Amino acid sequence: MKLKFSIVVVILILFGFNSLNFGQKKKAGQSGMTYLAISLGARESAMGNASVASVSGTQGLFYNPSTLTELSGFGLVMNHVGWIADTRVYGFGAAYGMDNYGTVGVDLVYMDYGKIVGTQRVDKTIDERGFIITGDLSISDYAVGLAYAYPVNDLFSFGVKYKFVHENLGTADIAVKEIDKENGIYEYETREWQINHWGFDFGGFYKVGFKDLVVGVAFQNFSTDMKYWTEVFQLPLVLRMGLAMDLAKVILEDQTDFEINTAVDILHPIDYTERVHLGTELVYKEMFALRAGYKFNYDVEDFSFGVGLKFNFQGYEGSFDYGYTHAQFFESINRFSLSFAL
Q1: SS in 3 state form for the chain?
Q2: pLDDT of residue 130
Q3: What's 75's domain CATH number?
């Protein structure tokens, strides 16, 4: 058991060292529909989004589908994210655990961009500003997912999620023919900018056998290329590896009132250099939780914190979580999650 534990730790340390080296290199890869990379869960986000091994319950639909095997019976979760620039993201999920037969789940992620005013470039003889207002744009982004997780044995589970993704950027006129370049006169054609596509998430969840140490791996947002006019892109593909453990089981072995859940994730995204997430959670009597975390190598987000409360409602177990993430250059980000186990 000690040898197995040592091998896992060495692999993760090497992966982390490799990530720090490659983190100095710039990437040319680009992605679209980046709302799929936004962390939805308040608990996970408060812990710096160190979630691939620490996520629990129905929230696994959004972070690592293999962890759904830990769910017994029916689970429901609702997430609200007050994102930057007055936008919002909503995530809804439901899953049902069938013990040795695995767990099935469905989810919906929706991005609300608020009010966006459309404009069109025109000659200054028409409007001295050089543009006219064409009305509010009707923009929508959403993804519908279907997941299945299977427990191979008491220690290892794997999971997969298929997602249907939709994006509609509305209609817009584009220049298709040059008539008089000097005076900025072109022939325009109206097009609807809309894409329907698909993606996959894959995940693994392994209990090492030392205390409650867990190793998690997730490969999220795998897809083929999509295209808007001449711009080719993929979903925000990312490989995540992480560890999670209750340190109280090591340093406070004789007590049962407190948990010190700690997690670390290492990320290899398609559209940025390597990143590291760290998070911890102090839980008292499995009811009250205080959380904090930090995200390394981000332009906007850095530290986070939050609280959680478990409760019973008409015989059902529930939890309410709040997460705060500091955002440089923008208003900070607030997240709320409500979940039930039925």
Answers
A1: CHHHHHHHHHHHHHHHHHHHHHCCCCCCCCECCHHHHCCCCHHHHHCCCCCCCCCCHHHHHHHCHHHHHHCCEEEEEEEEEECCCCCEEEEEEEEEECHHHCEEEEEEEEEECCCCEEEEECCCCCCCCCEEEEEECCCEEEEEEEEEEEECCCCEEEEEEEEEEEEEEEEEEEEEEEEECCCCEEEEEEEEEEEEEEEEEEEEEEECCCCCCEEEEEEEEECCCEEECCEEEECCCEEEEEEEEECHHHHCCCCCCEEEEEEEEEEEECCCCCEEEEEEEEEECCCEEEEEEEEECCCCEEEEEEEEEEEEECCEEEEEEEEEEEECCCCCEEEEEEEEEC
A2: 78
A3: 2.40.160.40
